[in-house]
Amino acid sequence: MAVWFIRSVNIGHHLKEKLGLLGVLNNSLQHHYCRDPDAISSNSAYIFSIRRFESTKAQQQLHSMYEDDDQNQVLDFPGGRVMLTPEMGFISETPEQRVKCYRVLDDNGQPIMSSSFPEVNKELAIKMYRDMVTLQTMDTIFYEAQRQGRISFYATSTGEEAINIASATALTINDIVVPQYRESGVLLWRGFTMQEFANQCFGNKADNGKGRQMPIHYGSKKLNYFTVSSTIAEQLPQAVGVAYSLKMDRKDACVITYFGDGGTSEGDFHAALNFAAVLDAPVIFFCRNNGWAISTPTSEQFRSDGIVVKGQAYGIRSIRVDGNDALAVYNAVKEAREMAISEQRPILIEALTYRIGHHSTSDDSTKYRSANEIEHWRMVREPVTRFRKWVQWNGWWTEEDESELRSSVRKELLHAIQVAENVEKPPLADLFTDVYDHPPSNLYEQERSLRETIKRHPQDYPPNVPV
Ligand SMILES: Cc1ncc(C[n+]2csc(CCOP(=O)(O)OP(=O)(O)O)c2C)c(N)n1
Ligand SMILES: [Mg+2]
């Protein structure tokens, strides 16, 4: 499988061979320390004393230089040896070449001649395609429901269906998903039903979150899918913690956490990458670089070659992939999962894509981007059509299959919405439960005050919420 990840360690082979005894000893201890959680408790005092010894020697090491066989001077520095040079040179702010983007299918759904092929058989391909269409249809119908005033909010994944479904396909149900909010398709793939999606969006009594969250803040303990929280990037350090717990428990599973390009402008992103790297946490950081963070274009977020190079900066193996090519996404995540678990390390994937829809129902993106730009991605680079062409090219899909699927999904969704709308809302008392065993007095006071206000202004409160 020709999936190339940028290696986090770029040290030349000949230099590695010349490492001194201290370096080798330190390396093997670090390896032991990081890979074997049990070793942490039993050997921690020993490792700590070695490290302290090393740090008190730091000053001495700074002045110690060695000549290697090539007459190059080497600085023995805590953390690794560094080649010295008499030539002053700043590292360029832009690489000579931008990191290439891995893809398998061209824009027309045709396999690229030289690309190695992922093993996606007919059954899997059809399930992937069906779920992409379901996600698309779900987005259309819920979006319309919001426009009709039936739900309060919605955000579509339009343009990012391949990322959603293909990444989910490459994982197992034991892998834990720590999402942002534009990854409903991952939950769909795992078996969240249309009724469950509708119940959450309508905030009714059957919703797992008891109606306490905005629409699209899904979560499912059963499906190993953490509940969405709106605060951008806060999920990333949490994901590292979850991955570290999998490591401690020696689980044959990893964590995948999703985030947008906007998320990388938060401090949490950087803290998470660094923690994951030094803890060797089995976590896949999946960045959906869709060009926009609401109205802020990526050109106002960073000057680097996208996100992929930031992985390497933190010592994390990384890849850039075409997010609108389902087969490339599938291949990259499958390989990333394998490395994350077998080598116990984090991996970063930057998927290039485009947010075709508005940011959410609270946004009008025509105010800040050109219609041509949106049209280009909708017509030329659209991921569902591209995948469909490949499935059809294989002779696995017909026009009749297409119309049958679209109409049955639509019917099922409309039914789910109708049912969800008629289910009772959770009682008012639920607002104050599930956080404390014994709620503090100020919460009791707030509940009392709310009930009094409702009594005084009943016309301002929804009649379908039991008080
Ligand atoms: C900490 C924080 N700051 C700001 C916001 C407001 N906000 C919600 S979504 C969003 C943009 C996120 O963009 P990106 O991460 O690229 O995801 P995308 O919407 O493009 O999928 C912002 C700024 C927030 N929810 N949390
Ligand atoms: Mg974005």
UniProtKB/TrEMBL annotation:
GO terms for molecular function: branched-chain 2-oxo acid dehydrogenase activity; metal ion binding. GO terms for cellular component: mitochondrial matrix. One of its GO terms (biological process) is branched-chain amino acid catabolic process. Residues 130-426 form the Dehydrogenase E1 component domain. It holds the Pfam family E1_dh. Its cofactor is thiamine diphosphate. Keywords: Metal-binding, Mitochondrion, Oxidoreductase, Potassium, Transit peptide. It catalyses: N(6)-[(R)-lipoyl]-L-lysyl-[protein] + 3-methyl-2-oxobutanoate + H(+) = N(6)-[(R)-S(8)-2-methylpropanoyldihydrolipoyl]-L-lysyl-[protein] + CO2. The keyword Metal-binding applies. SUPFAM superfamilies: Thiamin diphosphate-binding fold (THDP-binding) (SSF52518). The keyword Transcription regulation does not apply. Its EC number is 1.2.4.4. Its main location: mitochondrion. It is found in: Mitochondrion matrix. It comes from the Eukaryota. Belongs to the BCKDHA family. Heterotetramer of alpha and beta chains. This is 3-methyl-2-oxobutanoate dehydrogenase (2-methylpropanoyl-transferring). It comes from Protea cynaroides. The lineage of its organism: Eukaryota, Viridiplantae, Streptophyta, Embryophyta, Tracheophyta.
